[in-house]
Amino acid sequence: MTNHWIDIKNASVVVIMGGNAAEAHPVGFGWVTEAMEHNNAKLVVVDPRFNRSAALADCYAPLRSGTDIAFLLGLSRYLIETKQVNYEYVKAYTNASYIIREDFEFNEGLFSGFDEKSRTYDKDSWYYELDEDGYAKVDETYEHPRCVWNLLKNHVDRYDFETVSNITGTPVEDYEKVCALIGSTHVHDKAATFMYALGWTHHTKGAQNIRSMALVQLLLGNIGVLGGGVNALRGHSNVQGATDMGLLCQNLPGYLKLPNDNDTDLATYLDNYTPKPLRPGQTNYWSNYPKFFISQMKSFWGENATAANNFGYDWLPKWDLQYDYTKHIDMMYKGQVNGYFVQGVNAINSMPNRNKTLAALCKLKYLVVMDPLATETSVFWQKAGEFNDVQPSEIQTQVFRLPTTLFAEEEGCIVNSGRWMQWHWKGANPPGESKPDAEILSGILMKLRELYKAEGGVLPEPIEAVNWAGYHNPHFPHGEEVAKELNGIDLKTGKQLDSFSQLKDDGSTSCGCWIYSGSWTEAGNMMARRDNSDTSGKGITPGWAFSWPQNRRVLYNRASCDVNGKPWDPKRMIVEWNHGKWHGIDVGDFNMTLPPKESAHPFIMQPEGVGRFFSLKMLAEGPFPEHYEPMETPIGTNPLHPKVISNPAVRLLEGVEETLGSHTEFPYVCTTYSLTEHFNFWTIHCRLAAISMPETFVELDEILAAKKGIANGDWVKVSSKRGSLMTKALVTKRLQPLKVHGQMVHTVGLPRHGGYNGLTRRSSSCNVLTTEVGDANTQVPEFKAFLVDIAKAEGV
Ligand SMILES: Nc1nc2c(c(=O)[nH]1)N[C@H]1C(S)=C(S)[C@@H](COP(=O)(O)OP(=O)(O)OC[C@H]3O[C@@H](n4cnc5c(=O)[nH]c(N)nc54)[C@H](O)[C@@H]3O)O[C@H]1N2
Ligand SMILES: Nc1nc2c(c(=O)[nH]1)N[C@H]1C(S)=C(S)[C@@H](COP(=O)(O)OP(=O)(O)OC[C@H]3O[C@@H](n4cnc5c(=O)[nH]c(N)nc54)[C@H](O)[C@@H]3O)O[C@H]1N2
Ligand SMILES: [Mo]
User: Fold this and answer.
1) Structural domain boundaries of the chain?
2) Which ligand is closest to the CA of 212, given by its number?
3) Membrane-spanning regions, if any (predicted)?
4) Which ligand gives the minimal distance to the CA of 209?
5) How far apart are CA 428 and CA 425, in angstroms?
6) pLDDT tens digits, 184-224
7) Residue 65 C-alpha to ligand 1 middle, in angstroms?
8) Could you tell me which CATH number the domain at 656-792 has?
9) Which contiguous run of DSSP H or E holds residue 155?
10) Residue of 20, 67, 240, 629 to test ligand 1 pocket, by largest number of atoms within 8 Å of CB
11) Which among 574, 573, 577, 610 has a CA at the least distance from the CA of 595?
């Protein structure tokens, strides 16, 4: 979240789109009802299903799953057309006036630089026109035909109300109401917040869904202000922390990059990831990259990292391919992988195309499952016979089950969606022989070192050099020790650092994760603070826990006031310039020693300091979002450009295209979602949760049910090109067929529920049906829009 949970109470309009906070974030949703009760806020919900969030909404609009970009680009067009734009904000704080290169083009659904064979873009033309000093050219008059504002206007112009409704199925009356409510926040004294999660990310254009919303928020001047922002609601309790810590295969902690094959040496690597300013006088905060990175290397390798050995750079693995989940399952499936560590994931239930995952696990030599529960993955062989002729006894994969503790059975820090690092204490002792993950992994490292010492082997250096010396017990580093290391230390004085502004690139500071700097200083554990005083009444509680970065609660907050430092809305003051000084209720997201004009570039992580309507080379499929159909489309065409139907830059692993179904065979859209009564697949092991929602089901609308002769409670078979499952029908008014491109499109819904190893009724997870094709940037699978058929099951 750019903002944080409590801040939602400051919103004038709350938009829940691409998520279902009332069910999946029921505690945080309390701040939505707070805004409605005490701030007269309006709640807008846009979702294919009339869900529990919709039940409380002032305005609900249905849309076809996978069409949010058309919806939001149409909204952008409406805002520009009706002049409901925060022009002062757009002028001062966005790249609207920047000029784009002459060779940039968009035609018939494709941007310039597309290579059909590799399904990738050469992105050179998606860039600013530069002057002789390397700075981006701007045209403050907005007359230049290639300034971003004119390109944006042109790009969204195609998305008029009828076109949008024709693609999304949203009735025009509903669409107009949503547009008017959101548009009402373009004035200085109103703000809208957008709350989203999987309804936007689980698509082949997930990242562009979120970009489309960011465009709307920039047009309205809603970023960096109280009650506004771009607010991703995170899933597992510490998934924010896991992402911060470099969970993704190409990241290092603190959103630094894991080097790839092209980063041949340290100097090249630092040069590739340290941006140069794109306008004069910019903060360009990533210019500090070398300080963050070298300090991280000191934390990784300790005294073994020296200037002479490039601070251990050469010991880091260099990636050649994106080894995300679907890629490595595909490699296993093709027999290219020996062993697989599954730590805190239930791959069989949660990951796409279950039958392929099952087949892949059968090809391993060994599988290690680290989990407190006996998950379906840890007994995968029991199901393997279901879809092929392999008998469980023929499967050679050796399985090791290492029972771990659960997060509540150890102390540590959990980072919530609002970036708060909250320390927690052990709630209970773990049962049986379970061990904390850190103890298991350290045990493996110690054993590997022993083996290398005794037997030798290739590439011993990283195993030998990794810095474990500081831990009291190298077999089990404690949470406190790791937290202090992540905060960072001045190696000359041995003192904890106060902030990442003290980091150096000469090896004299050590810091595991620069954004966490300040969380454990000489004054102690800032994450354990529990003072909830809110003196401003605006939900800013600096004495509660630690909010990265720098205990800042609202990111980009320089944008809450104008170029001269005067708050756009006095009631929404976060920082202001007063009597020759900055004052504020939050830590300023800029250098507070600079006068207003010199700090008037709030997006300090961008080398040009402004928000981007045109996102340059950031994303795989284009610098502007564009509507593409889901890979499995119920209408078989793209009404905007029939030649480019789905995302052209999607990665298609070998053989996957044949696993995609067509609308003639599988006519219904299927979407999958969470239930309040269960947490993913763990709580099927919990008796009370199992009683409250004992079995899975499929939701379908009354018209489709009548057409198929299906009554409420009937057993039905749901099938996709990849597999099928049996479940019970729940016939509901919550789903309605939508009129799309001249036809009625029906959506069916499957909850994330099921499994055969817990206490609920045995069933297959919805992932028997899903496809592994994913977002072109993140590879997150298209779990929310794929095609199925449904039929009454006879004789059950
Ligand atoms: N009780 C409970 N809480 C949970 C979880 C749980 O299992 N149970 N899971 C946790 C996890 S890991 C996560 S990631 C979060 C998930 O949190 P959410 O993303 O809020 O959860 P979902 O139910 O997957 O999906 C949200 C909504 O997206 C809608 N949707 C589907 N397709 C589209 C689309 O194309 N456009 C739009 N606008 N909406 C669409 C669905 O109908 C659904 O109502 O929840 C977390 N919280
Ligand atoms: N079709 C479809 N598929 C989906 C989704 C969807 O909406 N639709 N949602 C996706 C999303 S957002 C997510 S996050 C994934 C979730 O996918 P998973 O993460 O596979 O799902 P969980 O059931 O939450 O499994 C987490 C496991 O971690 C274990 N665990 C808990 N604490 C600890 C610990 O301290 N250490 C270790 N080692 N293990 C621990 C739990 O016992 C549990 O088995 O599913 C994805 N799959
Ligand atoms: Mo999640």
Assistant:
1) 321-405, 656-792
2) 1
3) none
4) 1
5) 9
6) 999 999 999 999 999 999 999 999 999 999 999 999 999 99
7) 12
8) 2.40.40.20
9) helix 148-156
10) 20
11) 577
